[in-house]
Every structure is written in C-alpha cells, then in structure tokens.
Amino acid sequence: MAALITENFKFVSLFFKSKDVMIFNGLIALGTVASQTAYNVFAFECPCSSGRNYRYGLAAIGVPALVFFLVGIMMNRSTWDLVSECRLRKCWKLSGAAAFAVLGTITGRGVVAPLTWSVISLLQGQAYTCALSEFVDPSTLEGFPSDQGPEVMAKFPCRESVPTELRDFWDEINRRLKYESQLIGWLLVAGMCLTVFLMLCMKRCSSPLGYLQEDYWSQYRSNENALFQHTAAVHARLLAAENVKSFFGFVAGTEEDKEQLAEHHNASPICSTNWNRVTGVYLYREKHGLPLYSRLNKWSTYSLENDVEAMEKEMDMLS
Fold first, then answer.
1. What does the buried/exposed string (b/e) look like for 120-134 if buried means 16 or more CB atoms within 10 Å of the residue's CB?
2. What is the reported pLDDT for 55?
3. What is the rounded CA–CA span in Å between residue 157 and residue 129?
4. CB-based contact 63:43 (threshold 8 Å)
5. Helical (H) or strand (E) element with 292
6. Which residues have CB under 8 Å from 50's CB, separation 6+?
7. Which residues does UniProt assign to the signal peptide (predicted)?
8. DSSP character for 270?
9. CA dist., res. 26 & res. 20, Å (int)
10. Where are the alpha helices (DSSP H) in 16-157?
11. Cα(266)–Cα(255) distance, rounded to whole angstroms?
12. Taking CA 68 as the corner, what is the angle to CA 63 and CA 72, rounded to the nearest 5 degrees?
C-alpha cells in the first residue's frame, strides 16, 4: 500500500511539480483564446454547401487542436527527457509506474492548448453551426416546408444564401445549433475542471511530503533549472572564448566576458558520461531519509561520496 501511494504521488507531482508550469499553461491557454478569436474574425468562412460543411467544421476544430497538441508535445522538456532515457538507459528499464507517470505528464501538458481551442470553438458556435446545419431535421421546425433537404439546410450558416421564403427560420436554427454547441463546450469545461480537481486531491492525499516540502521542491527545481541554464550558457561562452584565444591569441569580447575569463581561469569540457548521468527521466527519491530532488542533486550527492559503482547503479534507477 505504501509503495502504491508513493507511485501515485510521483505521478501527480510530475504534473504539478512547478508553479512555473502552471503559469506557462495559463499563458498557453490565453494565447490559444486569442488565436481562436482572430481565426473566427478573419479566416473562418463556412462553405454553406452540403457535404463540405461537415468536413470544414470538423477541420476548423480538429486540425488546429491536433497541431497545438503536437507543438505542445515537442515543446515539453519531459518529452525529450523520455527520449534521452530510452536512448541512454533503454526504455525497458522504465517501470510501469514510471512510464505511466512520464507519459501522463507529457500528455497532460500537451492537451492544454487543444482543449482550450476546442472549448472556445464550441462556445462561439460558428464551426459547430457550420458542421451540423445540414443535419437539422426540418420536421422539428414548425411550419418549415417538408420537401427541403440537406442541400437547403446547409445554406443556413450563410444567411444571405438562404432562400428568401425560409429566412424567417434562420434565427431558430442558429439558436438551436449554438445551444447544442455551447452545451457541449460547457460540459467539456466541467469535465476539465473536475479532472484537475481530482488530480489535485489525489496529489494532496497520496503525497508522502508535507505541503511546505512540496513547495520547497517546486522552488528547488525552478531555481536549479534557471541556474543550470544560465551557468551552461556562461560555461559554453568561456570554453568558446578559450578556444578562440588559443587560435587567434586574443579574444575580442566585452568587458563582462573579460571579467568572467579573469575570474574563471579555465572552463574544462564536461565528459559525456556526466552529461548522460544528469539527463533523463527523474522521479522523487530519497537516500537515507534525505530527499534527492533531481538527477543533478542525485549526481552531486554520490559524487561527494566518490563511489562510482554506487553512482552508476543509482543513476540508472528511477524509483
């Protein structure tokens, strides 16, 4: 039971491990809303033709959502952590819980923009109205001529294309389709909110850590990532400067570059083995009761002990 609780915590903590992730997801959602609104205003044009409406309406909702999903997957660092894990340590070393956790966090973050696009499309109703207009049953409309088929119904998204004698039905058909579209949209919103709420509850209930330590872990990962990226950029610049200096005999850098070169006399290349040790999937782990918050934290801890054999064994473990 304890192991199951711990694995559940590892899964949900991957999704909510950083406040920066939540903020980033919020910005993605806002950007998607703006993109969807601009698309409806400037680009959406229903063909108002039987057979084409359905394909165009579904494409207007589904294709951008698919593109957003693929872009979200590609922009997610966890995707490339998983790729690196499979390349360096083979995917078969991933336990079922670890694989579920990683794929869950990748998918969870990847669906933010697609779901936002789909919800906004449904709430606005234009794409749904275009797609489903030809399937409206004329017999459900009081006073509507019974001899009209899908070809005529498909013209209703374009009011100017509707035959003059049928334009009085335009408002009713438009309201009905928008009602259906917005109902589906609000149900999707409710489902999303309920899912996020249940995941947050699962995180709080299954976490072996206290709230303060979870918050500390989130801050640690954000700070480690920021410091690592900045230091890596400086290290790469210093190493490049040293190589350029060895070739030309001098470096035409800025005052800041010269100060850094004077402060750090050399920037030695880092061996691939150490790069590989700090690259890949990581789930929360402890050593003798002390938390290890990342692969870098784990590498640093074992490096201090100078136990290469233990490090090699430990760095291959995910949980």
1. bbbbbbbbbbbbbbb
2. 92
3. 7
4. no
5. strand 290-292
6. 134, 149, 150, 151, 153, 154
7. none
8. P
9. 10
10. 19-42, 52-75, 77-89, 96-110, 112-124, 126-132, 150-153
11. 17
12. 150
* Closest by CA position to 34, among listed 151, 102, 116: 116
Record the tokens describing residue 43, joined without a space. 């680009």
Which residue in this structure is represented by tokens 């233990």?
310
DSSP state, 251?
-
- 223's tokens: 């700070």
Report pTM: 0.72
CA distance 251 to 239: 12
SS3 state of residue 87: helix
Q: Which of these, 169, 132, 129, lies nearest to 148 by C-alpha position?
A: 169
State how far the Cα of 230 lies from the Cα of 236, in Å rounded to an integer: 10
Q: What was the pLDDT predicted at 8?
A: 42
Tens of pLDDT, residues 71-124: 989 988 888 888 887 877 776 666 666 677 778 788 888 898 899 899 999 998
| The residue type at 151 | E
How many CB atoms within 10 Å of residue 47? Answer: 15
Instruction: Measure the CA–CA gap between 169 and 156, rounded to whole angstroms.
Output: 9
